[in-house]
Every structure is written in C-alpha cells, then in structure tokens.
Write a structure and sequence with these properties.
Blueprint: E1 3-13, E2 23-29, E3 50-53, H1 54-59, E4 65-69, H2 79-87, E5 91-96, E6 110-113, E7 128-133, H3 139-144, E8 157-161, H4 166-178, E9 183-185, H5 188-191
Parallel strand pairs: 2-4, 4-5, 5-6, 6-7, 7-8, 8-9
Antiparallel strand pairs: 1-2, 1-3
Length: about 200
C-alpha cells in the first residue's frame, strides 16, 4: 500500500462551495506547487507531514464524504487512496488548484477547482469552480480560462471571500453585480467558529 504525506486528518463541516455545511472527513496532504499568500494550510511542505499508509488513512475516515485537500493533492498518485475509499463506499471529493490532471476520474465523485492567478488553470471537468477574490483577482482573465461556458457552471461558480477581508467582500459584490452567474462564498466553518 502507498504512503501519503498527511498534514492532518479531521472531521468537520465543509466550509466552502456547494457542499458547504455537510459533515465530512478531511484528508489534508502536504506539498504544493504554488505559494499563495492567503493559503489557509499552515504546513504546505511535505517535510512536516507524517507519512501514513493508505489503510491507516482510510480507517480514520468516519464520515460518508471524504475530502482530499492540501496543499495540492494532485502532486501525489491518489489511485490507492481513492480506490480504498470507494471500496468502503465513501463519496470522494477533491479540492485542487487545477494545475495538474486528476487520474483516475472514475474514483472521484466531486472535483472542486480553485484556480489561482495569474494563469487561472482549470481542469476540463470541474464540478465546481471557486475563485479567491484577492486584490489581484482579474475576473475577465479568470472567466476566459474556464474550459466551458460560465453558464454551464451556473450554480457551481463561486467568488470566494479571501479570509473574510472587507475589501474582498466589497470586490466580490461588485463583480457579482456585473456577472450575476457567480455565487458569493464565505468560509462557513470560520463564520461558525468550527475547526
């Protein structure tokens, strides 16, 4: 069985996107190919992670939904992990920055992509797309990089508030008035004070 660099594993509510409020088991893997200033992952490097075997990780998944996140989880071959989760009848979601392909797709039930500036990479088959509204967020550039028409993502296209910042909130509201196909997303777990 494959070992993975696990930064942390915990149960909580999903704080973002269409599944916000659902009780999930998070599997946060170390390592990322980007260095975003607003990143809420305290340990991005693999050096601080604990290498856990697939079976140990899956045994700690208590909820019906398992969310593989990071860092950037697609830096790792997720085949063993996703296959083992599916064998235990788990609904498998992944949160990615969209810069790497996800294989195999059949083992992933939900793909949440959060493309980052300046290139705004996006996978060809996202289930939802969340753009962090940072100071340098360029909505026209971001929309131009979507693999499908924005209307095809209606109800699944988010302007994600950056760290509950007032400037980010105001910018997101202005963009939404111009592009009403967006939903505004806040980090529900932080609003509720849930870890």
């Amino acid at each position: 069985m494959k070992a993975y660099p696990v930064v942390e594993q915990f149960d909580s509510i999903q704080g973002e996107g269409i599944n916000a409020g659902a009780l999930v088991s998070f599997i946060r893997l170390g390592g990322c190919n980007l260095n975003c200033p607003w990143c809420d992952t305290p340990q991005r490097g693999v050096s601080d992670s604990v290498h856990k075997m697939t079976g140990t990780i899956v045994e700690a998944v208590n909820q019906g939904i398992a969310v593989i996140t990071g860092g950037e989880p697609t830096l790792h071959d997720l085949t063993d992990l996703t296959r083992s989760l599916k064998m235990r009848s788990k609904y498998v979601a992944i949160e990615t920055n969209g810069t790497n392909p996800i294989e195999p797709f059949w083992q992933i039930d939900w793909v949440a992509v959060s493309p980052k500036p300046p290139l705004y990479h996006c996978l060809p088959m996202p289930d939802e797309v969340k753009f962090v509204v940072s100071d340098d967020f360029d909505v026209e550039e971001a929309l131009s990089q979507l693999p499908v028409s924005p209307t095809e993502l209606l109800g699944r296209l988010y302007l994600q508030i950056e760290s509950q910042r007032e400037e980010s909130i105001q910018k997101a509201l202005e963009i939404q008035r111009k592009y009403p196909l967006f939903k505004i997303g806040a980090q529900l777990h932080k609003v509720l004070g849930v870890a």
